[in-house]
Amino acid sequence: MRLSVSFCIVVTTLLLVAVAVMVFYSMRFDLILYTVLFGQAWWIFTVFRVLSDKYTTDKTFDDWYEDHPIGRE
């Protein structure tokens, strides 16, 4: 089963929030350390997944923002 890029980004965000919450509440150091180490490894995996994803699009910079087109009314 392949993990989607969106799932990897969500997990990375949740790990970052979890570390911030653990530091705020002064949890055990070893728990914070292992979470940070796992988060760094997961972040490298996420960067690899994003850069090696086979995503293609036909959009260009001329399309600008789709919800607020500039110069195309």
Task: Please outline the helices and strands.
Blueprint: H1 5-24, H2 29-51
**End-to-end CA span:** 44 Å
- The H/E string reads HH
Tally the helices: what do you get?
2
- Count of distinct strands: 0
> What can be said about the biggest beta sheet?
none
Radius of gyration: 18 Å
How many separate structural domains?
Answer: 1
On the 0-100 scale, what is the average pLDDT? Answer: 86
Q: Portion of residues in helices?
A: 55-70%
Structural classification: mainly alpha
Low-confidence stretches: none
- Approximate strand percentage: under 5%
Shape designation: elongated
What descriptive keywords fit this protein?
mainly alpha, elongated
Describe this protein's structure.
The chain crosses the membrane at residues 7-25, 31-51. Keywords: Membrane, Transmembrane, Transmembrane helix. The chain has 73 residues and is mainly alpha-helical. The chain has one domain. The protein is 59% helix and 0% strand. It has two helices and no strands. Helix 1 (5-24) packs antiparallel against helix 2.
